[in-house]
Each structure stands twice: as structure tokens, then as C-alpha cells.
Specification:
Layout (H helix, E strand, L loop, with lengths): L1 H5 L4 E10 L9 E8 L4 E9 L15 E5 L6 H9 L3 E5 L8 E2 L11 H7 L5 E9 L2 E11 L2 H17 L6 H7 L1 E6 L8 H9 L2 H12 L13 H25 L14 H22 L4 H8 L13 H12 L6
Parallel strand pairs: 1-4, 4-5
Antiparallel strand pairs: 1-2, 2-3, 5-9, 6-7, 7-8, 8-9
Helix pairs in contact: 4-5, 8-9
Organism: Methylotuvimicrobium alcaliphilum (strain DSM 19304 / NCIMB 14124 / VKM B-2133 / 20Z)
Protein name: Transposase IS4-like domain-containing protein
Pfam families: DDE_Tnp_1
């Protein structure tokens, strides 16, 4: 760990997933597994899977020195422990209901943490709780940073917890209601390196991956899939859009430089504006090339056609069309 810090080799990677639906679908068809570099705010890796594949750190090529910032969907010891064991690190929104952590003690079988008691011991103040993360025969040291929500946000979180329980025909437990008023973040980074305040500030920056996904959808239309699941056209569409994103990102880096692409200083330009400008230029260039080459005219027209639909596009009634044809044959114009 000290060697990584001294070498400046800690790379903060923000990871999240999103979904794409085929035409007419109400449920997930494909999943996008997105990883961005937090310093440059650029795409580092994107994987496309079907709806049967869930979120996991196993989708990404993470190595020693990488620090993965992930949400509560990644509370999975089977993927967290191997990453930490090979020199990587995590900053994770911890969910006590999804993943068990253990007290830092010498008990061979480990002692599960009583989170109700631990939270009470903090007396409403932020704090760091040393823990063990275990999987099979591995035991990893970590820290859970606990931060109380402001009263209004805590009350709102408890109302949502009660509503979720009612939707499932249950009553929210006291433990659930207590934990709803706190933000718990697990990390394998030592407290001496990043304290509770710093970890909280770092986790908030995870929002940047949401903005990247929003750009992929709102500017590049990656979620407007015009093909059925498992078809070659669907595969071409999704990976073609990712190529579009890579080209857009590369042009932005070359044209605007570090001022527009890094988080290590004051930022006055948003990536959304840059991507929109460049994406529009690329679209205009691609569209302009079709009419100039007769070979592409049929393909160009086909690409502009409407998708198959039950209700056909309107046309003239048969009798009206006959009158027009008869009129033209007799030298009379009806149009």
C-alpha cells in the first residue's frame, strides 16, 4: 500500500451499471457495465451483457492500485476479496442486509458485527469502525465509515424504508429504521490515508459516472435500441454506439486538452457541452457522406425508414388515386 502511494499509482475508478431495452420492452434487455477514470472523467471500460448478468466487479480489468468506487449493488465478498487480495481497493456503499462484516478480533470463526449497537455507540457522531471482510479462507482488513444523515433526510429515508416494507407485506424492523438514518461506507483504504470526512467527500464524486451514462443516452442515444434481443443488429448497434462514444471522447481530449478533461482543478466546462458539440459534428459528417456517393443512397433511405408497425403510414384512398391517374392520362391535372 505504501509503495502504491509513493509511486502515485492509486487510480480511482468509478463503476456503475445501466440498462437498455429492446423496442416495446418494459424490462431490461441488455446491461451496460461502465467504468470511468475519476481524474480524467473518461470511459475506461464498458461491457455489454444480457439482462441475465448482474452487477459485479468481475466484469472489469482491475489491477493493483485501482480503487473502485461502487454503490450498494456490489456488496459481494466473492468479487471484493479477490480484488483487494491482489492489491486493489474499494470504496463501497455498505448494506448490512446484503453483506456480513466481522469484528476485528482473534476468534477463528469471527464475530458478526451488531450494527444496531455499533451505531448507538457513536451517539449520533460520525465514526470509523474497523472490520474484517471474509470470503472462504481469506480475511481482509477494512473500515466502515458511518455518517448520520441530516434530520430531514433521515426522516425521509425512514419513510421510504417503511413504504418498501409495506409493499412487500412486511413491517420495517427497528434495525432497518435505525440504519436508514445513516450512510455506511466500507473501504479497504486505511483510515490513516483517508478519514471519514474525506471518504464521504470521495463517495459523493461517484455521481460523475451517472453523468457519463446520461451522456451516452441523451447525446448518443445508446438506449434507443432498434433491434431485437440477441440479433446481430442489436450487437452492432450497441457496440457501434460505444465506438461513437470512444471517438467523441478522443476528439474532446485532443481538441480541448486537460482544462476540460480533468478533476484536479477548477472546472468551468461540462463534458455534456463538449460531447454535444462534437457528437453533432460527427453526425453531420456521417450524414453528409451518403448523398455524395450513389452507392450509399439505398442504404441511406433504408436507414431513414420507419420501423415495422401494425398501423401503416397513411396513403391516398384507392378511388382518389384512380382519379388522379385517370386525370393525368387525359391531360387533366388534379394535383
Amino acid at each position: 500500500m505504501d509503495k502504491q502511494i509513493n509511486n502515485g499509482s492509486l487510480n480511482f475508478i468509478v463503476i456503475d451499471g445501466s440498462t437498455v431495452q429492446e423496442p416495446g420492452a418494459k424490462e431490461t434487455t441488455y446491461r451496460l457495465h461502465v467504468a470511468i477514470d475519476l481524474m480524467s472523467l473518461t470511459l475506461r471500460e464498458v461491457n455489454v451483457t444480457t439482462d441475465k448478468v448482474g452487477e459485479s466487479l468481475d466484469h472489469y480489468q482491475l489491477t493493483a492500485g485501482d480503487v473502485a468506487l461502487v454503490d450498494r449493488g456490489y456488496n459481494q465478498p466473492k468479487s471484493l476479496v479477490p480484488l483487494i487480495d491482489r492489491g486493489g481497493h474499494v470504496v463501497l456503499r455498505y448494506n448490512p442486509h446484503s453483506m456480513t462484516l466481522y469484528e476485528r478480533c482473534n476468534e477463528p470463526k469471527g464475530v458478526k458485527i451488531d450494527w444496531e449497537q455499533r451505531i448507538r455507540d457513536l451517539n449520533g457522531q460520525p465514526g470509523a469502525i474497523p472490520v474484517y471482510l471474509c470470503h472462504q479462507d481469506k480475511r481482509i482488513e477494512g473500515v466502515v465509515h458511518a455518517m448520520p444523515l441530516p434530520p430531514e433526510q433521515a426522516a425521509q429515508a425512514r419513510r421510504k424504508a417503511k413504504q418498501r416494507a409495506r409493499d412487500k407485506g412486511r413491517t420495517a424492523s427497528q434495525k432497518t429504521l435505525m440504519l436508514s438514518g445513516w450512510v455506511l461506507i466500507f473501504t479497504s483504504l486505511p483510515e490513516a490515508l483517508l478519514d471519514t470526512k474525506s471518504i464521504a467527500e470521495l463517495y459523493r464524486v461517484r455521481w460523475q459516472v451517472e453523468l457519463v451514462i446520461k451522456r451516452l443516452k441523451s447525446l448518443l442515444d445508446i438506449d434507443r435500441l432498434r433491434a431485437r434481443k440477441d440479433s446481430k443488429l442489436a450487437d452492432l448497434y450497441l457496440h457501434g454506439k460505444l465506438l461513437f462514444a470512444a471517438v467523441t471522447q478522443k476528439i474532446a481530449q485532443r481538441r480541448f486538452g486537460r482544462a476540460a478533461t480533468t478533476m484536479d482543478g477548477d472546472r468551468s466546462i461540462t463534458h455534456w457541452r463538449l460531447w454535444r458539440t462534437i457528437a453533432n459534428e460527427i453526425k453531420a459528417g456521417l450524414t453528409a457522406c451518403f448523398p455524395k456517393n450513389e452507392r450509399f443512397i439505398d442504404d441511406h433511405v433504408k436507414s431513414l425508414c420507419e420501423r415495422p408497425r401494425k398501423r401503416k403510414l397513411q396513403g391516398l384512398p384507392g378511388r382518389v388515386l384512380e382519379l388522379i391517374i385517370e386525370g393525368r392520362g387525359g391531360g387533366v391535372s388534379l394535383t
